[in-house]
């Protein structure tokens, strides 16, 4: 029985080693004339992973858990510009350009894992770009 006890404890010691992720809302953009919204979030899953910048599209009439992830990217180890949010988020600009049309502009140096062209009845367009930076006076 004593030999069996350490064998049972080893698998139990691995419980709870999964990193817990925290999420911070950076921006909420509302679709005029609709109950749709786009939320930009920063997800942190621990020291061994890069921060993820995420855009989700949902409807105010539905639970937040039903919002659809339409964009996921990270800084590719720090190559992408952090933009105005800092803290590990990549440069983003998320704007409803017309009813049902969402524009997502992100730093072209970010590593994009997901981009979905339609969600919750909206059309989504993505564009990689370099963020504007002021030039020093000459």
Automatic annotation (TrEMBL):
<protein>
    <recommendedName>
        <fullName>Lipoprotein</fullName>
    </recommendedName>
</protein>
């Amino acid at each position: 029985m004593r030999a069996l006890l350490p064998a049972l404890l080893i698998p139990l010691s691995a419980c709870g080693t999964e990193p817990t992720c925290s999420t911070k809302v950076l921006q909420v953009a509302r679709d005029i004339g609709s109950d749709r919204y786009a939320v930009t979030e920063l997800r942190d899953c621990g020291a061994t992973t890069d921060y993820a910048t995420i855009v989700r599209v949902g409807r105010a009439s539905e639970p937040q858990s039903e919002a659809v992830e339409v964009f996921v990217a990270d800084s590719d180890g720090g190559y992408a510009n952090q933009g105005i949010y800092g803290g590990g988020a990549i440069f983003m600009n998320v704007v409803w350009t017309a009813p049902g049309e969402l524009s997502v502009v992100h730093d072209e140096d970010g590593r994009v894992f997901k981009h979905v062209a339609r969600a919750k009845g909206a059309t989504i367009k993505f564009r990689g770009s370099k963020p504007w930076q002021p030039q020093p006076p000459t």
